[in-house]
Please model this.
Amino acid sequence: MTTRKYTHLFFDLDNTIWDFNANSYDALQVALGRLELLDPIGSYDDFFKIYSEVNERLWEQYRQGTMTKKVLSVQRFEESFEKHGTPLPKGGATVNDTYLNEMPLQTRLVNGARELLDYLYGKYEMSVITNGFKEVQYDKIQKSGLSKYFRKIFISEEIGAQKPDKQIFEYAVKSMNAKKKKSLMIGDSWDADIIGALNFGIDQVYFASNLGKMDIPSEKWGSLEINRDISNVPPKNIMVNATILNSNNTTTTFIACLEEIFNIL
Model:
């Protein structure tokens, strides 16, 4: 019987399994329609671009602990409407509540996610580690038909530590009774998923669809592994399918589509 390299797989949820970008676009459009705010903003695509930029910036502050959930929830909409130059008569809290009610109703998954989970189910112990708001993450998983795949869901809000804090990874690995050397983190956020798991000491798969070629000598890439400390190096133009052996003896593998995980396990 072949011994598996990994026994436990830890997945990020948003934009790794659940298509956050597409679902957020649809949910906000429905929410603004319900609140009769679509006509005042004119081009929804233009507004959504502004909102996405504002939301990502505030979420980064939230991950760093300099922004509270309550402030983020309201400010992301009030600031977006202000930058768009459109008055917001309903208030940011009302828009946020309507948007969050619509989010779990959207069920689009990242391409290849269902097929990957079907293949992995029963072969590996799988769980989710997410920074998303607890009031929607469970519903997103349940309504998208993902519940059966994951034995446990670890939400930063409930644990009291957000990715990339090592505490949330330690909590998840211990709760799953997993060994660090047999654990693999799969996620689309370099700072939250990859650097967090790397610093804790488990292998990582960085999933991004826009990978190119990093400015490291090409002979170092391909099937070769190199010793390198990447904890403070952003993933600028990284080559697809490369694997780095980090200075803490974990590996970072870069993929552009989920199907490439089959080649890692």
About this structure: The chain has ten helices and eight strands. The mean pLDDT is 88. The chain has two domains: 8-19+109-263, 20-105. The domain at 20-105 is CATH 1.10.150.240 (DNA polymerase; domain 1).
